[in-house]
Structure prediction request, 298 residues.
Amino acid sequence: MKKGIVFLIVFLMVISFPICGYAKGRRKFIWTLPGNMRIMPELHRAMLLCTRRKKNRKDIVIAVNAGHGTKGGSSVKTLCHPDGSAKVTGGTTAAGSVKAVAVSDGMAFRDGTAERDVTLRMARILKKKLLAEGYDVLMVRDGKDAQLDNVARTVICNNVADCHIALHWDSDGLSYDKGCFYASVPEKLKKMRPVASYWEEHDALGKSLIKGLRSQKIKINGTGATEIDLTQTSYSTIPSVDIELGNQCSDHSDRKLQKLADGLVQGINKYVKTSYSCSTVKQPVRLKMEVTYGNMVL
Prediction:
């Protein structure tokens, strides 16, 4: 059983090399196997959803994760943290919980539109704009139902992309649009692995996205950051952010989504400009792979 799983992971890695390329040689391949992931039958298909820009490529892969959209995801649970520790802030899952809903159903806007449908529209708009800017784009979900839990989504992004942006709208029960913010890493998690090595990059990416949205005169909630303990950032080994683009009272017309996408692209450009050297061509890098199976590293 164990050998079969390892073979599958190695096989997926090999076939994915020519699809997207791999970023910067700054990180290792880290595959968290069953025991953490619970919904992953589309693991291979999702890795193939990376679109490459043919001309003027930056050779940088942006993972666009349309939040929610996993049928049956709310009836399955995964570990909140790789080390099995308890969640430190509340949200969809209460603080103190060791396991979280694999993928929540999301909320409904006040006009009845499902959040999962809006995040998918947003992702498709953002994809087109990123391709026009010269980025490669990994669409983690590009349909109504992606059978990938939040851990699986994050693992795919870790291994295929340079950064991971999850798109959401907040379900806060307010009667007004409070504006956008990103989920920053809580202080209590900043010493946990792998968060300790990456939280500063998560924060830098989040701040850049907020600056980009501000440049489009998009409403921002407070400072633009709210500490939330997320499965996504707990498992991420690349710069990774959950960006909340408003709440259930927000305008989600195509015109507004276009404006939000423009702001996100500006934010991504700001982050890339300060974090990467786009004038140099990346050379193929042989990366180390760690396969975690229970408490063993293979």
About this structure: Residues 63 and 138 are 5 Å apart (CA to CA). The helical segments are 2-20, 43-47, 115-132, 150-160, 195-215, 231-235, 254-275. The first strand starts at residue 29 and ends at 32.
